[in-house]
């Protein structure tokens, strides 16, 4: 569902991402793990088309991001790290607006469904500026899911959340797992180990390891080595 081949991004003389390649299938939750500044956010921006790549290719649900960007993006849900939301809009109003951007026919029904799915029922009548950090993240997830994308890309979705809120996000991802291809980034091993089927280690702009979650001892050793550098 998601195929990434040799994507590269440079900022002047600095290479932020170098020949990164991997593929993730339906039903997989892959964790993009690495220290701050490793290139995680840059990679996710390239994959979602938020930032142009210098070279390489991204194919989402069979659509090449360069050749058919609108179709590729329609099959992608994206929650950026800073979770940009319209604070002066009500939750229901905002989600209806996003549904309209995707030209959904059943907007009212889909908004109600995604509010239930993300646990926003009690907050749906509030303005976004009134939401707690945890509910803001849920609102961000709701907009990423409103058009029922095949691929879900999340940039540090649990950043700034307390343990209970993080667990709720993890439970939601596990519920979505059978029908989605999920890639999310983090700089903490316990977060990705809690839900991921695979963990991709990125360091200095390159993938240095792609390991299954059950190799946790190897993951811990590698993570300590990378974060110590």
Task: Describe the fold and architecture.
The protein has helices spanning 40-47, 69-74, 91-101, 107-117, 133-145, 163-176, 189-195, 216-228, and strands spanning 2-11, 14-24, 29-33, 55-60, 63-64, 76-79, 151-155, 181-186, 198-203, 206-212. With 229 residues, the protein is of the alpha/beta class. The chain is built from 8 helices and 10 strands. The model has no long low-confidence stretch (mean pLDDT 90). Helix 3 packs across helix 4 (107-117). Strand 4 (55-60) and strand 5 form a beta hairpin. It has a 6-stranded mixed beta sheet, with helices on both faces. It has a 4-stranded antiparallel beta sheet with strand order 2-1-4-5.
Give the CA-CA distance, first to last residue: 34 Å
Radius of gyration: 17 Å
**Count of discrete domains:** 2
Shape descriptor:
globular
Based on the coordinates given, report the CATH architecture of the largest domain. Answer: 3-Layer(aba) Sandwich
Q: For the largest beta sheet, what order do the strands appear in spatially? A: 6-7-8-3-9-10
The overall pLDDT average reads 90
| Residue runs with pLDDT of under 50 for 5 or more positions | none
According to DSSP, the number of beta strands is: 10
The helix-and-strand class reads: alpha/beta
Report the helical percentage. 25-40%
Number of helices: 8
CATH top level assignment of the largest domain:
Alpha Beta
What is the string of SSEs from the N terminus onward?
EEEHEEHEHHHEHEHEEH
Strand content: 25-35%
CATH superfamily of the largest domain: P-loop containing nucleotide triphosphate hydrolases
The main β sheet shows up as:
6 strands, mixed
Q: Output the CATH topology of the largest domain.
A: Rossmann fold
């Amino acid at each position: 569902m998601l195929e990434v081949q040799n994507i590269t991004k440079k900022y002047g003389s600095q290479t932020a991402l170098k020949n990164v390649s991997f593929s993730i299938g339906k039903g997989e939750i892959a964790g993009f793990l690495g220290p701050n500044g490793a290139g995680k956010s840059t990679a996710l921006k390239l994959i979602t088309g938020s930032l142009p790549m210098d070279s390489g290719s991204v194919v989402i649900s069979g659509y090449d991001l360069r050749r058919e960007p609108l179709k590729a993006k329609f099959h992608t849900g994206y929650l950026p790290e800073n979770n940009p939301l319209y604070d002066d809009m009500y939750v229901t109003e905002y989600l209806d607006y996003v549904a309209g951007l995707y030209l959904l026919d059943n907007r009212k029904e889909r908004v109600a469904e995604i509010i239930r799915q993300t646990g926003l029922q009690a907050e749906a009548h509030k303005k976004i500026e009134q939401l707690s950090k945890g509910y803001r993240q849920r609102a961000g997830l709701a907009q990423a899911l409103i058009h029922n994308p095949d691929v879900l890309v999340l940039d540090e979705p649990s950043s700034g959340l307390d343990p209970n809120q993080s667990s709720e996000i993890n439970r939601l991802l596990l519920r979505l797992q059978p029908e989605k291809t999920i890639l999310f980034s983090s700089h903490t091993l316990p977060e990705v180990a809690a839900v991921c089927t695979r963990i991709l280690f990125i360091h200095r702009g390159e993938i240095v390891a792609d390991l299954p979650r059950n190799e946790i001892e190897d993951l811990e050793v590698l993570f300590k080595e990378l974060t110590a550098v």
